[in-house]
Amino acid sequence: MSSVEPQDDLRLPRQPGVVRRFWARHERLADWLIALFWGLPATLITLATLVRSTEGTAHAWWPLTATLIVAASCIGFFVRRTRPILAFAILCAALIPAPFTDASPEQVLPVVGVYSLAVYRSNAAAWIGAAAVEGVSTLYVWLISPLGTNQTLAHSPAQWFPVYGIELLVALAIGITVGNRRRYLDALIDRAHQLARERDQQALLAAVAERARIARDMHDVVSHSLTVMVTLAEGSAAAAETDPSRAAAAMRQVADTGREALAGMRQMLGVLGSESEAATLAPQPTVADIPRLIERFRDLGLPVTLSSAGDVPAEPALQLAVYRIVQEGLTNALRYSHGPTRVDVLIDADGDPLAVVVDDDGLPGMPTVSVGAGRGLLGLTERVSTLGGTLASGHHDSGAGWRLAAALPRNPAHPAEETA
């Protein structure tokens, strides 16, 4: 169980009543008062009664022994909250001298033990304890009563059984009522703690999921844009001396791509601002934007062909996923593939699941070492899994080229996705 307690907003209200709050704060004082007003009189009455009954006899040692037994049993008052069973056993020892005293004050101590069992242990333990002390004490009185005086209640088991039984039943009734209320409050507090932990865990999971979504979308925008910009810049540098106009046009494309990337990042990060900052909302890319995406890669020299069949459902999350898959596949082909003569993009929306494939025939044995952390494919896998689909990637059996293939259900399992 976590040591972190719930926050201040889940604290219970103050208990009603000044007296109840006082005793709740001073439990040890209550135990000392019980020992003072119940244990001490029982000890003194036992001593006085036995001294008088054994005066002039050879049993002068018995009053001191019985008094020590009763006094020692008062220890049970101080452990009844933490070890109610042990406290009950200790308090029951006070019944040993009961058959020999006039008023039998010791019988109150096991009654407190039964009450403590009901409050601090369980109702079942209290019933078992009450039945045990009633049966054993009655048998003990029946066996010892011939040795007692005729003035004691314990001299007659027929009197002891009902009178002591009523005392135990009263203790049971009060103890069960108090114990049930105590356990009910403990259950409410424990439930409040669980709700607080679940609330914090849900908030943490939501924050982690949101960070992952933002990181995934930023990668899609930044990685793609930077790859295009690097390729354009390299082409511009190569053509700067032989074809300055072409180099200038390439640099203008670099600037346009950079501006698009900045606009996309502002759009995504705008939702993280304060409520007073209105985030710019714009539609996410869809399948209809894929031809323009492919034209951009063709301008960079990548031999891309597009084949499509059927219509992709209009679900925004599904449309965005198809676009991101094609974008990631083409970006990786541009960045890592060596000398591809073809890059095929296939979108087959006739069946269920629909298929999205990006396939190139780059030279075998010459893959460019990845400089990334694999976040692109990891983000795609998370996006596709959220929709209930699957994603596979890897080289062909011949070792040449790279294939990225996704299968997406036409009715996504979790279609809702926040727009950046």
From TrEMBL:
Record-linked CDD domains: HATPase_UhpB-NarQ-NarX-like
In what residue span(s) does the Histidine kinase/HSP90-like ATPase domain sit?
319-393
EC code(s) of this entry: 2.7.13.3
The terms describing its cellular component in GO are: membrane
Q: Which InterPro entries match?
A: HATPase_C_sf, HATPase_dom, Sensor_HK_TwoCompSys, Sig_transdc_His_kin_sub3_dim/P
One Pfam family named in its UniProt record: HATPase_c
| UniProtKB keywords | ATP-binding, Kinase, Membrane, Nucleotide-binding, Phosphoprotein, Transferase, Transmembrane, Transmembrane helix, Two-component regulatory system
GO molecular function terms attached to this record: ATP binding; phosphorelay sensor kinase activity; protein dimerization activity
* Start and end residues of each Signal transduction histidine kinase subgroup 3 dimerisation and phosphoacceptor domain: 210-273
Q: Which reaction does it catalyse?
A: ATP + protein L-histidine = ADP + protein N-phospho-L-histidine
What are the TM regions of this chain, as residue ranges?
A: 29-48, 60-79, 86-104, 124-148, 160-179
- PANTHER family per UniProt: NITRATE/NITRITE SENSOR PROTEIN NARX-RELATED, NITRATE_NITRITE SENSOR PROTEIN NARQ
Q: What is this protein called?
A: histidine kinase
Species in which this protein is naturally found: Gryllotalpicola protaetiae
